[in-house]
Amino acid sequence: MMSGGGYTSIDNQKVPGSVPAVSGADHVTVKFADSSLQTFPPSEAQGKISAVFRPPSDADDTFSKPARGSSDESQPTGWMHKFTVGAYKPYFDVDTSDVLERIRDSLFSFKGSFTEKTADNPDLYGPFWICTTLIFVAASIGTFVTYLAHKLQNKDWNYDINLVTWSAGLFYGYVTFVPLGLYIILKYFSAPSGLVQLWCLYGYSLFIFIPALCLSIVPVEIFRWVIVGVAGFMSATFVALNLRTHIKSAGERWFFIVAGIFLLQLALAVILKLYVFTVTVGAE
Predict the structure, then answer these.
(1) Do the Cβ atoms of 201 and 119 come closer than 8 Å?
(2) DSSP one-letter string for 4-54
(3) What is the rounded average pLDDT of the residues 158-165?
(4) Which residues pair with 7 in a beta bridge?
(5) Cβ 88 vs Cβ 127: under 8 Å
(6) Cβ partners under 8 Å of residue 137, min gap 6
(7) Which of 67, 87, 198, 270 could, after both became Cys, cross-link 179 (CB 3.0–4.6 A)?
(8) SS3 279
(9) Cis bond leading into 41, ω under 30°?
């Protein structure tokens, strides 16, 4: 130990228990890999931490096995597969953005690109909820229209529950059987189209009737006819233009098929006007 100028220095070589300043021959050098703070998380994990999950070595064999009943081997095959939920799961594999985009495309009926966009992933989720919404909107708006008409004339009013069942039969039946019939016709003319794709197209074509039914609450008969007529024309144009290119392969009769599709969609709008928004007020 030396002291000078008020400072004390310690000779490390002579202090018991100190770490030698010079390493011996068996010294092990510890090196750290250079880290890049610009990339997080690291692109490749090192050491014992890896990006791939593995069960511990002492884990039971059932740790990595699927639960009983969830294996594909237990699912029915052949035609029995059509009666399982898993057979229809791909047709409901859409998110909110997909449904909103398809609804938006149905409102721009003159584009005619809906079938191209949904060719790889047609869904039944949107058509189901559109039809269900239409049933309750048609029943509730139609009921309110008749209620308002009776009250304005001081007439007694009774709720008609048959309006709900009638609306359900109309929309569910139309979306189910009209595409099915069209599928059989196109198959006959050697221009087959996917049945699910037709259901998807017709289901989204009915969305325009939801705002139309809401606007039809205005108690002006001419205004109601105009609203329902415009909605029917847009819906019919949407279906006809999206099927026109495909049906052209059916031969010379493709024009009559497209015209029939267009007129049938217009007929749906007329039926809605006559049976939902035609108010008859009986005498007391």
Answers:
(1) no
(2) ETTEEE--GGGSTTPPPSS--TT----------TTSSS-SS--TT--SS--
(3) 78
(4) 4
(5) no
(6) 210, 213, 214
(7) 198
(8) coil
(9) yes
Helix (H, G, I), strand (E, B) or coil at 2: strand
Nearest CA to 206 out of 147, 149, 129, 263 is that of 129
Which tokens in the block code for residue 198? 């037709």
CA distance 260 to 257: 5
Q: Give, to the nearest 10 degrees, the angle between helix 195-205 and helix 96-107.
A: 70
What is the rounded distance in angstroms from the CA atom of residue 278 to the CA atom of residue 54? 67
CA distances from 1 to 7, 8, 14, 155, 179 (A): 11, 7, 9, 116, 101
Q: pTM for the complete prediction? A: 0.68
C-beta contacts of 197-201 below 8 A and 24+ residues apart: 197/115, 197/118, 197/119, 197/122, 199/122, 199/124, 199/127, 199/175, 200/118, 200/122, 200/123, 200/124, 200/126, 200/127, 201/114, 201/115, 201/118, 201/239, 201/242, 201/243
Residue pair 219/145 in contact (Cβ under 8 Å)? The answer is yes
Give the pLDDT confidence of 175-228 residue by residue, as tens digits: 999 999 999 988 888 777 789 999 999 999 999 999 998 888 887 889 989 999
Q: At 88, which helix (H) or strand (E)?
A: none
* Count of other CB atoms within 10 angstroms of residue 213: 25
> Which spans in the chain are helix H?
96-107, 114-117, 125-152, 162-188, 195-205, 209-215, 221-247, 254-276
Contact in structure between 145 and 114 (CB atoms under 8 Å): no
Which amino acid is it at 138? A
Instruction: Say how far apart CA 1 and CA 68 lie, in whole Å.
Output: 77
The distance from CA 46 to its chain's CA centroid, rounded to whole angstroms, is: 40
